[in-house]
Design goal:
The chain is an alpha+beta fold. Helices cover 19% and strands 35% of the residues. The longest helix has 22 residues.
Amino acid sequence: MSRIGKLPIEIPAGVEIKVSKENLVTVKGSSGELTQQIDPEIELSIEDNNVTFKRVGESKRLKSMHGLYRSLVNNMVIGVSKGFEIKLELVGVGYRAELLPGNILDLVLGFAHHIYLQIPPEVKVEAVSEKRKNPIVTLSSTDKQLVGQVAAKIRSFRKPEPYKGKGVKFVGEVLRRKAGKAAAK
């Protein structure tokens, strides 16, 4: 039995879960609505404010899908009730972030040009720049996969380098630093 798949998902107040005949799970909450297609060999049952998942067989594929779909539905329940937030910090001299009209993020990351990134409408973006502090870009959404994908895309433009730590990093991320050249005697 999958350790993650066998855990029940508790449905918080204000969250509604529906399952259609085509195994399409719809989760509605105060923050929005999310849908996910589930493999027909994974059975989903809703009883006493809990959602449980059972698999039909014991194949390796079904065992992996068991925990996967449980995690996806759990992330949907958390997303529509609380939401997800990721903060990115731009470390470097002259690094800036600005939100333009049309949900476009303008990034200045030390290149000879600006980087313009179209942010999906489901993701809310906030760019804060204070004097003498690194700019912080806050991404929030109900969809954990989408907000993580957008954060990874922003980070991929300039990953933190190991010598000075310059680049785009997650707030709270600990970077493994390297020593530079040793001074000659």
